[in-house]
Design a protein that fits this description.
By secondary structure, the chain is an alpha+beta fold. The protein has three domains: 114 residues, Beta-grasp domain (Ubiquitin-like (UB roll), Roll); 127 residues, Orthogonal Bundle (Fumarate Reductase Iron-sulfur Protein, Chain B, domain 2); 77 residues, no CATH class. It is 40% helix and 11% strand. It has 16 helices and seven strands. The strands form two sheets. A five-stranded mixed sheet has the order 2-1-5-3-4. Strands 6-7 form a two-stranded antiparallel ribbon. Strand 6 and strand 7 form a beta hairpin. The termini are far apart. It binds FE2/S2 (inorganic) cluster.
Length: 329
């Protein structure tokens, strides 16, 4: 069966021109090259790339090892989203007669389909992905935990560190310092482990800027993760733990409280008060930083109404809050 595959080619050493997708390089160094391959109906995108490299262009750079969704090395952009090439069927990704593959623009490119994973590994290291022992283990013994205590962590343990979640993370795309979905999911794995002694210290660190509260719930990480780790869900668990431990003096927690308060009081979000309540009215710097976004919203006719009205049937909303209980009962 014939397949058409369009490959983003890039060579760091070629002279750059007017713009590889920002922020890393310029586009002139990147070009798209089309290849035809003959493969069975059930073939994967990686099969096509390997055939190209073996029989048509040996200079094509592609990273892979296990070909079984274990090593995580073949994550790349396929039709504009991060996927493992070894588990992506050509027939599922062929659109208008072709499949387009390229290095994800959110990561520094090295060559062709190979990107530099340094940002990914740096973020992983930052969250201290190891257990900080509670007390020295007596010689010849080991830490033992009940199975039930580990069930909660199984989801994250499935991570193969392919980086697909970070490649498509909307927050990382605008803030390179954001810890990102994979690292935060790993952070949860160690924070919630009953053998770890640094729970409070970890939660304090993860609650700081560029941490758990910088996630925008775009769900790209949940969608792209090939192993069902659902990093966003682990981030939400970390947020809950941090609030329960009292780490609430930050813009993220205030934002969440202001959001809930507004919905409880009027049935809808009051966007005009959200910023001041999240960052503090006297935080002039934050207010000024939000001005460009406010102007853009005004230009697009998306400014919220100046008079915030309650919705009809507000009592039903209030009854939901009362039922859920907690701070907003
Ligand atoms: S080649 Fe190992 S995960 Fe795809």
């Amino acid at each position: 069966m014939k397949w058409t595959i369009v490959v983003g080619r890039y060579d760091k050493d070629q002279p750059a021109g007017s713009g590889y997708p920002p922020p890393f390089e310029s586009a002139a160094a990147k070009r798209y090259q089309t290849f035809e391959v003959d493969l069975p109906e059930h073939a994967m995108v990686l099969d096509a790339l390997i055939q190209v490299r073996e029989y048509q262009d040996e200079s094509l750079a592609v990273r892979c090892a296990c070909r079984s969704a274990i090593c995580g090395s073949c994550a790349m952009w396929i039709n504009g989203h991060a996927n493992l090439a070894c588990t992506s069927k050509l027939r599922d990704f062929t659109v208008d007669g072709k499949v387009t593959v390229e290095s994800p623009p959110s990561m520094p490119p090295i060559r062709d389909l190979v990107c530099d994973m340094t940002p990914f590994w740096q973020k992983n290291r930052q969250v201290r992905p190891w257990l900080e022992g509670k007390e020295p283990v007596p010689a010849g013994e080991e830490y033992r935990v009940p199975n039930a205590a580990m069930e909660n962590l199984i989801q994250e343990v499935g991570c193969i560190s392919c980086g697909a979640c970070l490649m498509d993370c909307e927050s990382f795309a605008v803030n390179q310092n954001f810890l990102g979905p994979a690292a935060l999911a790993k952070a949860y794995r160690y924070t919630a482990d009953p053998r770890d002694a640094e729970t409070r210290d970890r939660l304090k660190t993860y609650s700081e800027p560029d941490g758990v509260w910088d996630c925008t719930h775009c769900y790209e990480c949940v969608q792209q993760c090939p192993k069902g780790v659902a990093p966003l869900e682990q981030i939400l668990k970390l947020r809950r733990m941090a609030v329960e431990e009292g780490f609430t003096n930050n813009a993220g927690t205030r934002h969440a409280y202001a959001f809930a308060e507004s919905v409880k009081d009027s049935g809808r979000l009051n966007e005009l008060t959200l910023m001041p309540k999240s960052f503090g009215l006297l935080n002039i710097r934050a207010q000024l930083q939000s001005l460009p976004a406010a102007f853009n919203m005004a230009r697009a006719g998306k400014l919220p109404p100046l008079i915030h009205k309650k919705i009809p049937g507000l009592a039903r909303i209030k009854s939901i809050f009362a039922k859920v209980g907690g701070k907003f009962k």
